[in-house]
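Researcher: Please generate the 3D structure of the following complex. Treat every line as part of one assembly.
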Amino acid sequence: AQSVTQLGSHVSVSEGALVLLRCNYSSSVPPYLFWYVQYPNQGLQLLLKYTTGATLVKGINGFEAEFKKSETSFHLTKPSAHMSDAAEYFCAVREGNYGNNRLAFGKGNQVVVIP
Amino acid sequence: GAGVSQSPRYKVAKRGQDVALRCDPISGHVSLFWYQQALGQGPEFLTYFQNEAQLDKSGLPSDRFFAERPEGSVSTLKIQRTQQEDSAVYLCASTSQARGAEAFFGQGTRLTVV
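Model: Done. Output below.
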């Protein structure tokens, strides 16, 4: 079974500083990896995904993530935090087979942006 | 529709009551998923439909949980004899069948069992 580890449930970052959220996964097959963002009382919105090809993936709102197979990691970064980045972030790995795109999620990181 | 729609947004149920949660996926999306998100946790998979066929229900926590999608579009998650541990946000997502396809999530139904 696939699984995802996100350390540090709460992450505080100063406005304008680097945002770094770590994600490590385990997968018995080539992984499809995702980062989702969840704002209060909202569903999850896709930030970016890696399936195949280029290992550095760019997403919405200035976020990017790099797939590193040797480290089984897919860390999320943003060079300069904005107040609007305050939200919860989830890393996920596809764990289904064939047409089943079910996802296994990490526990999430609650990001607080300090003015 | 433009997005995945879930109703009700909030539901308070007395312990032992039955509840039904509705999901209206994006039109044309073959695949539909239900997830349960406990407070402070990531979503956890419950069940998967391809059209009207329930192909994976390995995540349903007990036989009190039942899901259906009779016409391959709208889905209903039913919880019988609700317990306090059922309190969570229930998220519905739909996708195309392409491998690695993005899952589009609804806003969820927050169920509180009192």
